[in-house]
Structures are given as structure tokens and as C-alpha cells.
Design a protein that fits this description.
135 residues; alpha/beta; Immunoglobulin-like; 4-stranded mixed sheet; 1 helix; 15% helix; globular; disordered N terminus
């Protein structure tokens, strides 16, 4: 009987501990932190990486505005400029929950893709997107 009570108490404590891990005070929603992903909500200056897509695919900003890409999944992604872009940029590997920031100082159209889930081209294919920068 005593071992049943201890087992039941241990199980309840474990459930409470796991439930406590679900809370988040992150402004980006979800857990974030150590590589979990935890979801992402796009904004006027934030692109979310989800599954094998960038959301939104097309983003328009004003020159000098920084853009943040946030990985809302547990899958590693990259943000890499296309050869057709007039400016080169590369995030390297962005793990789940991670971010990459880049400021576009000059008006133009910047195509980019994930080297893991897409391929360069005109325009890139697979997981790709476009940043349109206005003066």
C-alpha cells in the first residue's frame, strides 16, 4: 500500500512539473529557449519559419528597417540571400526558437531561401521568400 501511495505521489508531481513547463512569458508565444521552437506570429517586420515555409512569403518594409526571422519550429532552417539579390546575407543555421536579424539599407527586391528546404534560382524554389524594400 505504501509503495502505491509513493508511486501515485511521484506521478502527480511529475504531471505538475510538466504542466508548469508549458507556461511562457515570451512575447513571441510558446516556449522558445533551448531549441524547442514554440510557435511564431509574423508582424510587419518579422518573418516566421514554419515547417518548410516562410510566413509571410513576401514582406514590404522601408529602407533602414531591420527584419527578424524567427524559427517557430524545432527544425533547423537558414535565411540565405539568392544570387539574384543585390545584397548578400546569410543566417547560418537557425535552431528551433532562434532568430536572425538583418537590416536592409537600400531600396530593392531581395529574394532569399532556406538552404536546407529550398534551392536558389530566379526566383528561388522550395522554402523561399522576398523582402521588398521601399525608399
Amino acid at each position: 500500500m505504501r509503495s502505491s501511495v509513493i508511486t501515485l505521489a511521484s506521478g502527480a508531481a511529475g504531471v505538475l512539473l510538466l504542466a508548469a513547463c508549458g507556461g511562457s512569458t515570451s512575447p513571441y508565444g510558446g516556449g522558445g529557449g533551448g531549441g524547442g521552437g514554440g510557435g511564431c506570429t509574423p508582424t510587419a517586420t518579422k518573418v516566421c519559419m514554419a515547417a518548410a515555409t516562410f510566413n509571410p512569403t513576401n514582406l514590404t518594409i522601408t529602407a533602414g528597417t531591420p527584419v527578424t526571422w524567427q524559427n517557430g519550429t524545432a527544425i533547423t532552417h537558414t535565411v540565405t540571400s539568392s544570387a539574384s539579390s543585390t545584397e548578400a546575407f546569410s543566417s547560418g543555421s537557425v535552431a528551433g526558437g532562434g532568430t536572425f536579424n538583418h537590416t536592409f539599407p537600400t531600396a530593392g527586391t531581395y529574394n532569399y531561401f532556406c538552404t536546407i528546404h529550398g534551392a536558389d534560382g530566379t526566383p528561388p524554389i522550395g522554402m523561399h521568400g522576398t523582402i521588398t524594400v521601399q525608399p
